[in-house]
Amino acid sequence: MRNLILLPLALFIAIFCSAASAQTPTSFSQAKRLLEKHIYPTQEYRETFYCGCSYSGEKQVDAASCGYTPRKNAKRGKRIEWEHVVPASRFGKTRACWTDGNSACVTKKGKAYKGRRCCSKVDPEFKRMEADLHNLVPAVGELNGDRSNYRMAVISGEERTYGACDFEIDSKNKLAEPMAATRGDIARIYFYMQSTYNMPLSDAEMEMFTGWMSKDPVSEDEQLRDARILEIQGNSNVLISVGF
C-alpha cells in the first residue's frame, strides 16, 4: 500500500487539479445522480459516512452491518440520503436570495419564497456550491435529518442513541459529534469549502479541524474518492488529499 500523507494546509489549498471536466454538476439533483453512478458505483464503495453501514444500489441501509438502531425515525433510517457535510445554510445564509428572496422566486399561486429553495433556482454560485461533490456523502436518512445544520463539535458526556453507530447529537446546543474515523475527512471538506468558496471559519473551528486532520490522516479510501470526484469536476476544485 502507498504511504499516504496529508500535505500542510497552506500547500494543499494551493494545489489545483487539471483534469478535463465533462460532467461538472450544476444542480443538487444532478450531483446526486453523479454520486450514485460514478463516485459510489458498486457495493465495494457503498458505505454510509457517519455510521459505516453498507447500503444497496437501491439506497437501502443494512443496519446489521454497522449495529445501527434508529433513535426515532425507523422509516427514514432504512435509506441513505445525500448529506452536505458543510450545511447549505452555512454557505447560503448570507446570500441575497436566501435572506431577501428574488423576483423570480414566486409560486404559481403568487406566494414569494426565499432561502435554499430560492437560491437553488436563481443563484449560479450557490447552485455550484450546493452541487459540489466533495461536500456530499451518503448518510443514514435519520442521521441526516437529526444532524440538520448543526455545527461539528466534540460533545462531552453524550449519550449513544443510534445503537453501535458512534454519532451524537446535542439538540439543545445544536451540535453534532462524528466518530473519530471521519473527523479528518470532515475537517478537510470544511477547509476545502473555505478555500474554494471563501467560506469563513472561526478561529475555534480552524483549531479544532486542524487537530482533527492531524489525528485522522488521509486514508486510501478518501484519496480514491477524491480522485473519482476530480475526474468529474475538473479544474474548478482544489485537491483535498494527496498520496505518495
UniProtKB/TrEMBL annotation:
Top enzyme class: hydrolase
Keywords: Hydrolase, Nuclease, Signal
EC number: 3.1.21.-
Signal peptide: 1-22
Molecular function, one GO term: nuclease activity
Entries under InterPro entries matching the protein: Endonuclease-I, His-Me_finger_sf
Protein family: Belongs to the EndA/NucM nuclease family.
Identification of the protein by name: Nuclease NucM
Source species of the chain: Pseudovibrio axinellae
